[in-house]
Amino acid sequence: MHPFIQKHRGGLILLVFLLPLCFAGIRTHHDWGDDFAQYINQAKCITQGEPVSHTGYLYNPHNPMLGPAAYPGGFPLLLSPVYALFGNNIVAFNVYLSLWLILAGFIWYMVLRRYHSEWVSVALSVLWCWHPWVLEYKTEVMAEIPFTALLGLLILLYKRGFMRYDEEKRRESLLKALTLGIVAGLLVAVRLNGIVIVVALYAFEVWQNIWHLKPPFEPKNKLYTSAATALITAFIVCFVLIDYLISGIRTNDLLTYGSNFNGEPFLVRIRENLGYYTALVQDFFQRSKPEWKLFPLITQAFLLALACVGIIKDVVLKRSFLLWAFTAYMALLIVYPYRGGGLRFLLPVLPIILHYAAQGFKSIHWGFALPVKTTTAVLSIIILLQFLPEQYLAIKNAKNNFAGPQQPESMEAFAHIKANTPANTVFLFKKPRALALYAERKAFATYPVDTVLFLQDIKTFNPSYILTHADLQDVATQNYLIAHQHQWDSIWGNNKFTLYAKNPR
Fold first, then answer.
1. What is the rounded CA–CA span in Å between residue 231 and residue 217?
2. More confident: 368 or 398
3. pTM here?
4. Torsion sign (Cα): 307, 308, 311, 312
5. What share of the chain is helix, strand, coil (3-state, %, to 5)?
6. pLDDT, tens digit (0-9, with 9 covering 90-100), for 53-80
7. In what helix (H) or strand (E) does residue 103 lie, and over which residues does it extend?
8. Of 8-22, 41-55, 390-404, which range is least confident?
9. Counting Cβ atoms within 10 Å, is residue 268 exposed (0-12), middle (13-18) or buried (19+)?
10. Which of 453, 438, 449 is nearest to 497 (CA)?
C-alpha cells in the first residue's frame, strides 16, 4: 500500500478533512426561503412520473423574483432518488448535499492540483469546503453545491483533453467528447447560468485553434466526426432528455427567467452589481465578530489584492480556460438584476478566486528566501482558523428548530388546509411554493409593495383562501384584508397563522 499512499497522499488527507462534513451541521428544519420547496416538489413529480407543472405553484409574472414557473430539471432529478427512498426528509437531503460537497471538494482539488502543489491544493479545498458560509449553504436544499461540483468536473475533463480530436484514436476521442457533452448538459440542466460556461468553452476552443493557426475543428471536411460535434450533440441530447422528457418542463416555464431583467436600467444594474459582488468577495474573508475583527480586516485587503494580481497575470500571460469560465460567469452575475442571493451565486467560482489568490501570492518576488508552497498552505490554514468561531456557531445552530415549514405551527396549518379545503382551490400566501409542497394546494404570491398590481393579481388568480403568518411581513395583504374585511372571514388560526376564506355573500 505504500506506493498507493505515496501517490494519493493529498487525496487521502483531504478525505480525512472532508468526511466530517457528513455529520457537521445537519439540520432537521429548513427556513422559510422556499426555493427548496420547489426543488423538492419537482423531485416529487419526477418520482411520481408527473410533469413539474403539477407542483401547485402558480407563477406570477408581476412577482418574477420569487422564482420561475419551474426550475431546470437537473437538480430535482438528482434529488429524486433521495425523495424516492426517504420522502420529504430534510435530514436525508442534508446528508446527501454534504456528500455532494465532499465530491465538489475532491473535484476542485484535482483542478487546483494542475496549478499548485498537492498541499496547497488540499489547503484551498479545505478552506472552501469548511468556510462558515459554505457550511450554512450545505444545509439548504439548493442547487449551488452540485452545480459547483459539475463546473469543476467540466473544467477538469477539458483540461485532461476530453475535447481534443485524435484521428488515430477516433473512437476514444469521440467517447471523451460525448462524456464532456453529457457533463455540460447536466451542468446547464442543474442551473441555466451554466450555459455561459459552455459558450465560454466553445469560444475558448475556437480562439485556441485560431491563435495556433489551425482550422477551428478537425477534420475540416468531416465535421460530423469531430469531437466538437460529438460534444454539441451530447450536450443538446442530455439537456433535452432531462428538462423536457424526464421532467416535463415547458419552454415557457424556463423562459420566465427573462422577466427578471425588466425594470432596473442596465447601467445602474452593472454599477450596483459591481459594488455588490466586490463587497461579497471581501466579506468572504472578513468575519463580523468583534474579537476576531483585526486579522480578517488584514486578510480581506491582502487576499483581494492577491486575487487581482493572479487574475492580471492570467490575462497577460496565460489566458487559460479557467479565466474564460470565470469571466463568463462573473459577466452574467454583473448583468443579472437580482442581488438577494448573497454569496450563494458566487459559491461556484469561489475555488477559482482562491486559486487566483494563491497564484498571485506565488507570483510576487518577495526579495528574500521564502518557501512559497509551504507559506501558501500555512496562510490558508491560518485563514481557516480565523473562521473557527463562526464554524462552531454554524454547526451548533444547525440543531436549532428554524422558523419555517417544519415548525409545529406550520405543520398544524398545512395539515388543517389539507384536511379541510377542496383539492383544487387557490391560496394566496407569501411562501406559495412551501404551501404547494406541504399542503398540496395551488398557491401564488403577489408583488409585495404595489397595491395596483396586488388587486390585479387577486382578480387574475381569484384565490378562495388567504393564509397569513405573523412573522412573514406582508403589508400589502394585511392592508387588503383590512380594506375588504367584509369579503373575507377568518376561519382558523394558531399563534402564527391565520386562514381567511372568501365570503360567499
1. 12
2. 398
3. 0.89
4. negative
5. 65, 5, 30
6. 789 999 998 888 888 888 888 999 999 9
7. helix 90-112
8. 390-404
9. exposed
10. 438
Amino acid at 304: L
CB atoms within 10 A of CB 340: 8
Q: What's the CA angle centered on 339, arms 333 and 341, to 5 degrees?
A: 90
pLDDT digits (tens, 9 = 90+) for 257-272: 655 556 667 788 888 8
Location of C-alpha cell 426555493: 35
Residue 483 CA from chain centroid, whole number? 40
User: How many other C-beta atoms lie within 10 A of the C-beta of residue 365?
Assistant: 6
88 phi and psi angles, rounded to 5 deg: -80, 80
Whole-number pLDDT of residue 221: 40
Residue ranges in 284-320 assigned as alpha helix (H): 294-313
Q: What is the 3-state secondary structure (H, E, C) of 203-243?
A: HHHHHHHHHCCCCCCCCCCCHHHCHHHHHHHHHHHHHHHHH
Report how far residue 382's alpha carbon sits from residue 366's, in angstroms, rounded to the nearest whole number.
20
Rounded CA-CA distance 29/400 in Å is 8
Q: Alpha carbon of 183 to those of 92, 230, 255: distances in Å?
A: 25, 13, 22
| Residues present in the chain in total | 505
Give the amino acid at 322.
L
- The total of other beta-carbon atoms located within 10 Å of residue 267's CB is 8
Q: Are 123 and 17 in contact (CB under 8 A)?
A: no
> Which stretches of 372-488 are DSSP H helices?
372-386, 388-397, 408-420, 432-438, 451-461, 475-483
Measure the CA–CA gap between 231 and 175, rounded to whole angstroms: 9
Task: Report how far residue 214's alpha carbon sits from residue 211's, in angstroms, rounded to the nearest whole number.
Answer: 8
Q: Closest Cα to residue 180, out of 199, 153, 213, 140?
A: 153
- Cell numbers 468536473: residue: 153
Residue 187's identity, in one-letter code, is L
Alpha-carbon gap, residue 96 to 233, rounded angstroms = 31
Q: What are phi and psi of 167, to 5 degrees?
A: -60, -35
Spatial neighbors of 139 by CB under 8 A, at least 6 apart, are 25, 26, 27, 94, 97, 398
C-alpha cell at 203: 469560444
Nearest-angstrom CA–CA distance, 477 and 68: 22
Q: 51-86 burial, b for 16+ CB within 10 Å, e for fewer? A: bbbebbbbbbebbbebbbbbbbbbbbbbbbebbeee
Q: What would the 3-class secondary structure string for 310-361 be?
A: HHHHHHHHHCCHHHHHHHHHHHHHHHCCCCCCHHHHCHHHHHHHHHHHHHHH
Helix (H, G, I), strand (E, B) or coil at 153: helix
What type of residue sits at position 450?
D
The span from the first CA to the last CA of the chain, in angstroms, equals 81
